[in-house]
Amino acid sequence: WLLPRLDGYLEAVRELASKWSMRQIVVGAALVEDGMLLAQQRHYPAVHAGRWELPGGRVEPGESESEAVVRECREELGTEVRALERLGTDVPLLGGSGMSLRVLAVCRVAGARLPLPLEHRALRWVGGSELAGLPWLEADRLLLDSLRALLSSG
Ligand code: C5P
Q1: 56 lines ligand 1 (CB under 6 A)
Q2: What is the pLDDT of residues 81-112, one digit of tens each?
Q3: Residues in CB range of 135: below 8 A, 6 or more apart
Q4: Which of 8, 72, 82, 89 is spaced 20 to 30 A from 114 at the CA atom?
């Protein structure tokens, strides 16, 4: 009687694992200061080199989205931010990775350093009217309406 049960159990574990991987979240940080949004330009991998994105990356196991966004800003920008609200809806990343991009508005904590391009080619503060003209990664581009609304709200 044990073997069929074991099979069922394994099947359930597999199902959970695939659900989990479908929900893998990549967080992006929308940092606005003086009415401008911070964007960074990738230099790797080759297919993404030169394209612009919000700072961010994968949420690691055991980490909350807010913790992930704070860590990514520390690693990529060398600065301290606080996570605020979520922006827009999740955008599935292309390429069958099963990951989705989820953007959180963030603010730099008082006294924290100015952001630096520690892992990217360049950083740029972008105004609302310039947003559409940048060559964004596809997922980030789909969030431009929400980003424009964030810029005009404050
Ligand atoms: O930066 P990292 O390699 O951890 O990102 C994981 C994936 O999320 C990559 O495929 C990257 O292109 C994508 N990404 C994105 N937009 C962002 C940040 C990451 O599409 N703002």
Answers
A1: yes
A2: 999 999 999 999 988 788 999 999 999 999 99
A3: 50, 51, 52
A4: 89
CA distance 103 to 32: 13
Q: Is 137 in the pocket of ligand 1 (CB under 6 A)?
A: yes
pLDDT tens, residue by residue, 27-69: 999 999 999 999 999 999 999 999 999 999 999 999 999 999 9
Tell me which H or E stretch contains 103: strand 100-108
For residue 3, the CA-to-ligand 1 centroid distance in Å is 42
CA of 13 to the centre of ligand 1 (A): 27
Are 61 and 95 within 8 A, CB to CB? no
Distance 11 CA to ligand 1 centre (A): 31
- Which two three-digit tokens encode residue 1? 């009687």
Q: What is the ipTM of this complex?
A: 0.94
For residue 43 and ligand 1, the question of a CB distance below 6 A is answered with: no
Question: Does the beta carbon of 76 lie inside 6 Å of ligand 1?
Answer: no
Look-up of token digits 């099963």: 98
What tokens appear for 126 in the block? 């972008």
| Amino acid letter, residue 14 | R
